Predict the structure.
Amino acid sequence: GAGVSQSPRYKVAKRGQDVALRCDPISGHVSLFWYQQALGQGPEFLTYFQNEAQLDKSGLPSDRFFAERPEGSVSTLKIQRTQQEDSAVYLCASSLVTDIYSGANVLTFGAGSRLTVL
Amino acid sequence: EDQVTQSPEALRLQEGESSSLNCSYTVSGLRGLFWYRQDPGKGPEFLFTLYSAGEEKEKERLKATLTKKESFLHITAPKPEDSATYLCAVNPFGNEKLTFGTGTRLTIIP
Protein backbone atom coordinates (compact mmCIF):
# COMPACT_ATOMS: atom_id res chain seq x y z
CA GLY A 1 0.00 0.00 0.00
CA ALA A 2 0.87 3.66 -0.18
CA GLY A 3 1.39 4.06 3.55
CA VAL A 4 1.49 2.23 6.87
CA SER A 5 -1.99 1.02 7.78
CA GLN A 6 -3.07 0.34 11.35
CA SER A 7 -6.25 -1.17 12.71
CA PRO A 8 -8.36 -0.64 14.65
CA ARG A 9 -7.98 3.12 14.84
CA TYR A 10 -9.80 3.17 18.16
CA LYS A 11 -10.22 0.41 20.73
CA VAL A 12 -11.98 0.56 24.08
CA ALA A 13 -11.25 -2.36 26.39
CA LYS A 14 -12.35 -3.26 29.87
CA ARG A 15 -9.56 -3.79 32.36
CA GLY A 16 -8.37 -7.37 32.11
CA GLN A 17 -9.38 -7.86 28.48
CA ASP A 18 -6.88 -8.94 25.82
CA VAL A 19 -6.41 -6.74 22.74
CA ALA A 20 -4.68 -7.17 19.39
CA LEU A 21 -3.49 -4.28 17.24
CA ARG A 22 -2.58 -4.80 13.61
CA CYS A 23 0.02 -3.08 11.44
CA ASP A 24 0.34 -3.41 7.67
CA PRO A 25 3.66 -1.80 6.66
CA ILE A 26 4.69 -0.31 3.34
CA SER A 27 5.28 -3.08 0.83
CA GLY A 28 8.97 -4.00 0.68
CA HIS A 29 9.92 -2.33 3.94
CA VAL A 30 12.18 -4.69 5.84
CA SER A 31 12.12 -3.01 9.25
CA LEU A 32 9.05 -2.58 11.43
CA PHE A 33 8.80 -0.76 14.74
CA TRP A 34 6.17 -0.39 17.44
CA TYR A 35 6.02 2.72 19.61
CA GLN A 36 3.75 3.76 22.46
CA GLN A 37 2.70 7.40 22.77
CA ALA A 38 1.00 8.63 25.93
CA LEU A 39 -0.99 11.85 25.83
CA GLY A 40 1.29 14.87 25.53
CA GLN A 41 4.44 12.75 25.30
CA GLY A 42 6.78 11.69 22.55
CA PRO A 43 6.70 8.16 21.13
CA GLU A 44 8.45 5.53 23.28
CA PHE A 45 10.12 2.55 21.61
CA LEU A 46 8.56 -0.86 22.25
CA THR A 47 10.03 -3.35 19.79
CA TYR A 48 11.69 -3.78 16.39
CA PHE A 49 11.58 -6.42 13.65
CA GLN A 50 13.81 -7.00 10.69
CA ASN A 51 11.74 -9.19 8.38
CA GLU A 52 10.25 -11.83 10.70
CA ALA A 53 13.00 -11.64 13.30
CA GLN A 54 12.32 -9.65 16.45
CA LEU A 55 15.74 -8.08 17.04
CA ASP A 56 14.95 -5.77 19.94
CA LYS A 57 12.10 -6.02 22.44
CA SER A 58 13.75 -4.04 25.20
CA GLY A 59 10.97 -1.43 25.30
CA LEU A 60 8.08 -3.80 26.01
CA PRO A 61 6.88 -2.69 29.47
CA SER A 62 5.89 -6.11 30.78
CA ASP A 63 5.38 -9.73 29.76
CA ARG A 64 1.76 -8.83 29.05
CA PHE A 65 2.98 -7.25 25.81
CA PHE A 66 3.79 -9.49 22.88
CA ALA A 67 4.52 -8.69 19.23
CA GLU A 68 4.91 -10.90 16.20
CA ARG A 69 5.55 -10.63 12.47
CA PRO A 70 5.41 -14.24 11.33
CA GLU A 71 5.79 -13.75 7.57
CA GLY A 72 7.87 -10.60 7.61
CA SER A 73 5.07 -8.28 6.55
CA VAL A 74 1.98 -7.71 8.74
CA SER A 75 2.64 -7.39 12.46
CA THR A 76 0.40 -7.75 15.48
CA LEU A 77 0.92 -6.22 18.91
CA LYS A 78 -0.97 -8.12 21.58
CA ILE A 79 -1.62 -6.87 25.08
CA GLN A 80 -2.93 -9.37 27.60
CA ARG A 81 -4.94 -8.50 30.71
CA THR A 82 -5.01 -4.80 29.87
CA GLN A 83 -4.51 -2.26 32.64
CA GLN A 84 -5.48 1.42 32.75
CA GLU A 85 -1.84 2.44 32.36
CA ASP A 86 -1.83 0.74 28.94
CA SER A 87 -4.09 3.50 27.62
CA ALA A 88 -2.13 5.23 24.86
CA VAL A 89 -1.73 5.52 21.12
CA TYR A 90 0.23 2.62 19.65
CA LEU A 91 2.18 3.67 16.59
CA CYS A 92 3.62 1.36 13.99
CA ALA A 93 6.40 2.47 11.64
CA SER A 94 8.27 0.83 8.81
CA SER A 95 11.51 1.73 7.11
CA LEU A 96 13.69 1.06 4.13
CA VAL A 97 17.22 2.30 4.48
CA THR A 98 17.81 4.65 1.56
CA ASP A 99 20.72 6.73 2.75
CA ILE A 100 23.95 4.94 1.94
CA TYR A 101 26.09 7.53 3.76
CA SER A 102 24.96 6.70 7.25
CA GLY A 103 22.17 4.16 6.93
CA ALA A 104 20.05 5.99 9.46
CA ASN A 105 16.49 4.70 9.34
CA VAL A 106 13.82 7.06 8.02
CA LEU A 107 10.67 5.78 9.65
CA THR A 108 7.25 6.14 8.05
CA PHE A 109 4.55 6.04 10.69
CA GLY A 110 0.97 4.92 10.57
CA ALA A 111 -1.86 6.96 12.09
CA GLY A 112 -1.83 4.82 15.24
CA SER A 113 -4.30 2.79 17.25
CA ARG A 114 -5.74 4.63 20.24
CA LEU A 115 -6.35 2.22 23.11
CA THR A 116 -8.52 3.26 26.05
CA VAL A 117 -8.73 0.87 28.99
CA LEU A 118 -11.66 1.44 31.33
CA GLU B 1 21.36 6.22 27.90
CA ASP B 2 20.26 8.37 24.96
CA GLN B 3 18.30 11.47 25.95
CA VAL B 4 16.43 14.14 24.01
CA THR B 5 15.08 17.34 25.56
CA GLN B 6 12.94 19.75 23.59
CA SER B 7 12.09 23.34 24.43
CA PRO B 8 9.84 25.16 24.73
CA GLU B 9 7.00 22.71 25.44
CA ALA B 10 4.57 25.03 23.69
CA LEU B 11 4.96 28.12 21.53
CA ARG B 12 2.34 30.53 20.22
CA LEU B 13 3.34 32.85 17.39
CA GLN B 14 1.56 35.37 15.27
CA GLU B 15 1.46 34.56 11.57
CA GLY B 16 4.72 35.79 10.03
CA GLU B 17 6.59 35.87 13.37
CA SER B 18 9.78 33.83 12.98
CA SER B 19 11.21 31.71 15.82
CA SER B 20 13.26 28.64 16.68
CA LEU B 21 12.62 25.33 18.44
CA ASN B 22 15.41 23.67 20.39
CA CYS B 23 16.40 20.00 20.70
CA SER B 24 19.22 19.13 23.11
CA TYR B 25 20.54 15.59 22.99
CA THR B 26 23.01 13.17 24.48
CA VAL B 27 23.82 10.02 22.57
CA SER B 28 26.68 7.53 22.55
CA GLY B 29 27.41 8.05 18.88
CA LEU B 30 25.03 9.92 16.61
CA ARG B 31 24.06 8.17 13.41
CA GLY B 32 21.25 10.60 12.66
CA LEU B 33 19.04 13.27 14.22
CA PHE B 34 15.48 13.44 12.95
CA TRP B 35 12.76 16.06 12.94
CA TYR B 36 9.15 14.96 12.58
CA ARG B 37 5.89 16.88 12.48
CA GLN B 38 2.78 15.43 14.14
CA ASP B 39 -0.75 16.70 13.61
CA PRO B 40 -3.52 15.81 16.08
CA GLY B 41 -4.82 12.28 15.56
CA LYS B 42 -2.06 11.40 13.10
CA GLY B 43 1.29 9.68 13.18
CA PRO B 44 4.56 11.62 12.97
CA GLU B 45 5.51 12.79 9.49
CA PHE B 46 9.19 12.88 8.50
CA LEU B 47 10.76 16.28 7.87
CA PHE B 48 14.59 16.07 8.02
CA THR B 49 17.57 13.91 8.90
CA LEU B 50 20.84 15.56 10.00
CA TYR B 51 24.04 13.55 10.33
CA SER B 52 26.93 15.76 11.37
CA ALA B 53 27.61 19.02 13.18
CA GLY B 54 27.35 22.03 10.90
CA GLU B 55 24.84 20.43 8.59
CA GLU B 56 21.72 22.37 7.59
CA LYS B 57 18.60 21.34 5.67
CA GLU B 58 15.68 23.42 4.43
CA LYS B 59 12.13 22.74 3.37
CA GLU B 60 9.78 25.60 2.59
CA ARG B 61 9.63 27.77 5.75
CA LEU B 62 11.62 25.31 7.87
CA LYS B 63 15.37 25.06 8.35
CA ALA B 64 17.06 22.51 10.60
CA THR B 65 20.60 22.89 11.93
CA LEU B 66 22.84 20.63 14.00
CA THR B 67 25.68 21.06 16.49
CA LYS B 68 27.39 18.42 18.63
CA LYS B 69 24.90 18.96 21.45
CA GLU B 70 21.73 20.38 19.96
CA SER B 71 19.60 20.97 16.92
CA PHE B 72 17.41 23.90 16.03
CA LEU B 73 14.33 24.02 13.86
CA HIS B 74 13.99 27.54 12.54
CA ILE B 75 10.58 28.63 11.28
CA THR B 76 10.55 31.68 9.03
CA ALA B 77 7.35 33.69 8.48
CA PRO B 78 5.11 30.84 9.65
CA LYS B 79 1.56 30.30 8.46
CA PRO B 80 -1.38 28.81 10.40
CA GLU B 81 -0.90 25.50 8.55
CA ASP B 82 2.49 25.16 10.26
CA SER B 83 0.65 24.59 13.55
CA ALA B 84 1.57 21.12 14.81
CA THR B 85 3.74 19.31 17.34
CA TYR B 86 7.37 19.09 16.23
CA LEU B 87 9.28 16.05 17.45
CA CYS B 88 13.04 15.56 17.56
CA ALA B 89 14.61 12.10 17.71
CA VAL B 90 18.10 10.57 17.73
CA ASN B 91 19.35 7.30 16.27
CA PRO B 92 22.70 6.06 17.63
CA PHE B 93 25.16 3.84 15.81
CA GLY B 94 24.65 0.15 16.49
CA ASN B 95 20.98 0.58 17.32
CA GLU B 96 17.98 0.81 15.04
CA LYS B 97 15.55 2.54 17.35
CA LEU B 98 14.80 6.26 17.58
CA THR B 99 14.66 8.01 20.94
CA PHE B 100 12.18 10.87 20.83
CA GLY B 101 11.78 14.04 22.83
CA THR B 102 8.41 15.13 24.18
CA GLY B 103 7.89 17.62 21.37
CA THR B 104 7.11 21.32 20.98
CA ARG B 105 3.49 22.20 20.35
CA LEU B 106 3.50 25.11 17.90
CA THR B 107 0.44 27.29 17.33
CA ILE B 108 0.42 29.96 14.63
CA ILE B 109 -2.29 32.57 15.14
CA PRO B 110 -3.74 34.19 11.98
Observations:
- The interface with chain B takes residues 4, 31, 33, 35, 40-45, 48, 50, 55-56, 59, 91, 93, 99, 101-112 of chain A (CB under 8 Å).
- The radius of gyration of chain A is 14 Å.
